[in-house]
Task: inverse folding
């Protein structure tokens, strides 16, 4: 008897609510989970500043802020 046949026999013995729970679980796990490509090196830093400050800023704004820190 194949594994599929064994699974079908087991499901046949389930009551309606347990079979529904199993079906929901199977449907949730059927969808492929997209693999997240983890960037390495300098690319890993892209977007990091957006988490801290969501609005976009020009390079000149960033540099002026950095220079303010140097003057302090």
Result:
């Amino acid at each position: 008897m194949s594994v599929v046949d064994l699974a079908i026999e087991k499901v046949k013995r389930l009551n309606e609510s347990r079979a529904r729970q199993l079906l929901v679980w199977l449907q949730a796990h059927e969808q492929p989970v997209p693999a997240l490509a983890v960037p390495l090196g300098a690319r890993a830093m892209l977007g990091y500043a957006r988490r801290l400050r969501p609005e976009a800023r020009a390079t000149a704004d960033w540099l002026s802020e950095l220079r303010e820190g140097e003057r302090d």
Observations:
- The mean pLDDT is 86.
- The helical segments are 3-12, 16-30, 48-52, 59-71.
- The radius of gyration is 27 Å.
- Residues 1-31 form one domain.
